[in-house]
Every structure is written in C-alpha cells, then in structure tokens.
Write a structure and sequence with these properties.
Elements lengths: L1 E7 L5 E4 L1 H10 L5 E6 L5 E7 L3 H14 L13 H10 L2 E7 L2 E2 L5 E7 L5 E10 L1
Antiparallel strand pairs: 1-8, 2-7, 3-5, 3-8, 4-7, 5-6
Length: 132
Amino acid sequence: MLKSVEISTKRRTEFIDVTDMLRKIVSDSRVKDGICLVYTPHTTCGITINEYADPDVVKDIAAQLEKIAPQNAAYSHVEGNSDAHIKASIIGSSESIIISNSKLILGTWQGVFLCEFDGPRKRTLYIKLLEG
C-alpha cells in the first residue's frame, strides 16, 4: 500500500510531528506485521525519528543544525537555500519503522518528524507499508 499526504509548513525551519498520522495509516491498513517506509522527495526537507515528548529537543536539533550550516554563510548555490540542502542531507529523506500487531514499533519517547528547512512550502510525504 502506498499513500501520499500533503503537508503545508508555516516557517522556514519547522519540525512537524507526523507520528499520530502514521499510526492511523498503519491501524487503518490491513498490514499486521511489516515495515512502514516514510519518504519525502524534497531536497530541502527531511524525515527523522527523535524525542517528541519535549519540544525543546527538536528546538535544540534545529539550533545545532543552524550552527553547522548557517543560513547566511557564503555559499556557491545562488538560490539562497544552500543551508537547507545541507541540513536535509544531514537528516536524510526517509525512515523505516517496524510494524508489529498493526502498530508502529517506536520507543516510549520517539516520534516521527517532517523536518522543514526551506519553508513555508507544501511538502509531500509518501508512506509505503510492506507486509511480511
């Protein structure tokens, strides 16, 4: 099963918790055991799994990524979003999550985030459920 979801981001840098949406997609499917692949086909946003209970965690991640790739550094890419490309490359564009008994296997504090680095934009998230 393949599903696509459009997500509108509101800020240049934003971490959007998509965990509950993914849980619903899995529970509504007929997949009992397998893998949930989450992928975004954009070069300036990514997908990550990290703590979702404390919003300061994603704030800290965003702040450290800004130190690694500051928005206003001297980049060769003329579009003005080189930092977003670098941050998205560090985060990555996909995650794989085990499905067991029709539930995502995530740690107690883990959540799945769409990570926007060049917003606001409309982003597509693809979710592929593989049974087996």
